[in-house]
Structure formats: structure tokens, C-alpha cells
Amino acid sequence: MSTLLPGSFAELVYRLAVGLEPRDAVSGRRIARPVDIAVDGGPTFDLGPSFDETAGKWPEQSPVAGLRRLSRHGSGRFVLLFDGTIRTPVRLRIVPRDRRYVPRRLEIPIVGEAAVLAGEQAGADVPTASRAWRPLLFPGAGYDLAETATGVRGTVTHAGDPVRWTRIEAFVPGSPLRWRAHGDDRGEFLLVLGQNTGAVGDLVSPLVVTITVYAPNPALAVKTDDALADLPRETLAGPGITPDDVSTGITLTGWAQITQFDHPLTLGRLSSVPIAV
């Protein structure tokens, strides 16, 4: 059925449900490395009739295997189009490759297709900008980092086992600035002091920062067939609110503090900190 043209014409209209533009939490720029974004769900992996279990284990299953993936548009955004099956909220998983960034699972309260259609008919289209989000991705173990960067590379463990999907915050006492990091499924994190360090005043090496570690609360069940099953899902702000405190990693809903301590940072170098809680 034609909605914009006379009935004698064939019509094909693409309507945007979600535009997603992941950005680097350190630089603030678009992600320059490969990223997969898919509608959240349990991944499926077809071994096929030729798979031989006796020949060895199959390679690690991709967290987006068999899921509906968002295509990357020429604008640099990943797009999800209305096709009759998209409902609000939309749940997505962002899966960077090669551990350069830490994955995220997001719930996005989008403008529904009915509201988009009603806006078109009333001559008041829902702006594309209100259908786009820019969540930050935080450095993973394989992040491309300058040799002169200042930061902390650490591992969080409990009774010898990694604490999965931690959140890390660091600040200089008396300063409003906060630096953040995301831990991965191995308990590893990479906290990098960004470009605004000058706002804390004259820096003296070593620079003592207070580090706070958060863990998922409650901890979700780990599943062997889905590497992201226990990664908490974060709900972003509604349409038109950009940036929002969840996208930027400021608001932590579903994490609880498990430890806090002071740590001296040598400027221009990475330090290593094992954290046992």
C-alpha cells in the first residue's frame, strides 16, 4: 500500500527505528575498529552435518551468531529499520572484535513506528536526531594505546576467580573529574586518563587517585552458549536526549561498589594493579 504516493505507484519506504554511533570513551571519536551490533538474544550456531566432535573443539561462538545485525550506513551510524517486527524498547548488544573495547548490552526506548507514521501524516516528522544514540565503548585488553598514556591496567578477582563485567571509576580527591573503565569477562580492565587531566591543576608525578570498583548486583548466571548472558543490560535515556548519563557510563544501574582504594599513578606510564576482593 502506498502511503506517500498515489495508489498507481509502487512505493518502497525505509523508516529509521534506531541509529547507533558508538564512540571511543577515551578520544570521544567514532570507533575506527570493527564492531558488530545485533538485536539482543541468545546466539545460535549451526555446527552443520560435517562437524566432527572427535576432531577437537569448535572455535569460540560469536556472541552475535544467528542474531539480526544492524547494518553500517554510509553516515557512519549503524541502523535498524522498521519492518513490522520492531517494538519499543529495542534491546541491542554491541560486540567489538579483538577485545579492543568491552561489549555492552543496551535497552533503548525508541519512538514507535505508529508515532513516526502519525508524524508524517501530520506534516511533523520525528527528527532523525531523536532516533540516534551515541553510546561510549571503553578500552579493552587489546586497546590501541600510546606509549606515553597514563593509566591503570588491572584484573579484579574474587577467591581466585575473575569478577566479570566490573565498572571502574577513578578521581583525584578534591576534583570533580572522573575517569571510567569497563571490565570484561576475564576481570580485566584498562583505565586511561583522558585529555582533560589539566583541569585538576598542576600535575605531580606520582598522581594519587582514588579507585572505586563496582560489580554487577545481582550477578547474572553465566551461560556456556552465550558469552554475554551475564552482562547487565543498561537502559538508555529516551529519544532526543544526547548524550545521556547511561550512554556515557556515568550512571551505573545494576552495579554495586565492592572496593575502594588509593593508587599512585606515574604520569606517562601504565601501572598494573591486581585487585582481590
Q: What average pLDDT do the residues reach?
A: 86
Beginning-to-end CA distance, first to last residue: 61 Å
Assign the structural class, choosing from mainly alpha, mainly beta, alpha/beta, alpha+beta, or little secondary structure.
mainly beta
Q: How do the helices and strands follow one another from N- to C-terminus?
A: EEEEEEEHEEEEEEEEEEE
Unreliable parts: none
Please give a structural write-up.
The chain is mostly beta strands and 277 residues long. The chain has two domains: 122 residues, no CATH class; 126 residues, Immunoglobulin-like (Sandwich), CATH 2.60.40.10. Helices cover 3% and strands 32% of the residues. The protein contains one helix and 18 strands. Strands 4-5-1-8 form a four-stranded mixed beta sheet, with no helix packed on it. Strands 3-6-7-16 form a four-stranded mixed beta sheet, with no helix packed on it. Strands 10, 11, 14 and 18 form a four-stranded mixed beta sheet that branches. Strand 4 and strand 5 form a beta hairpin. The termini are far apart. The mean pLDDT is 86.
What's this, in brief?
This protein has 277 residues and is mainly β. It is 3% helix and 32% strand.
SSE blueprint and pairings:
Blueprint: E1 16-20, E2 23-24, E3 35-39, E4 71-72, E5 78-81, E6 90-96, E7 104-108, H1 113-121, E8 132-133, E9 136-137, E10 151-158, E11 161-162, E12 167-171, E13 179-182, E14 188-192, E15 207-216, E16 233-235, E17 255-265, E18 270-276
Parallel strand pairs: 1-8, 2-9, 7-16, 10-18
Antiparallel strand pairs: 1-5, 3-6, 4-5, 6-7, 10-11, 10-14, 12-13, 12-15, 15-17
